[in-house]
Amino acid sequence: MSQDHPVTITRGDPETVLQPMSVEQSHTLAQAGTDIAMLKEVATQWPALLQVWASLAETAADPVESYAYARVGYHRGLDQLRQSGWRGSGAVKASHEENLGFLRSLNALRKAAEAIGEDVEAKRCEMFLYQVDANWAAVLSA
Prior knowledge:
- The chain has helices at 23-32, 36-45, 50-59, 63-83, 100-115, 119-132, 136-140.
- It has 142 residues and is an all-alpha fold.
- The protein has a single domain, classed as Serine Threonine Protein Phosphatase 5, Tetratricopeptide repeat.
């Protein structure tokens, strides 16, 4: 093998990073804060925005409502991961801000599933979180 054609060796599964929010989305979401009505308006304006579904799930007082919002964020997140090249395995690190909407939705789904007695799903979500980022808990609880 010649030196002008080096061999690149990768180890482990590839890492996927989702697309970032636009400045407008970030600003609008920040303005909404934890106001459910405003968050719903943001979701209506940008239904693919994972961070708004995570915020709705985290803010909802009712665990069934939280579960529904989290499930939307989780499924939309899976779609976006696949569009970004993820094939069902590999890292989706919480250290990348772009991935937090998906990871927060998955974590909110875990919590809401636990709250409504869906223990099997809660465990599945927790295992999935550890599979995509072993350090998820430290980042999401910070």
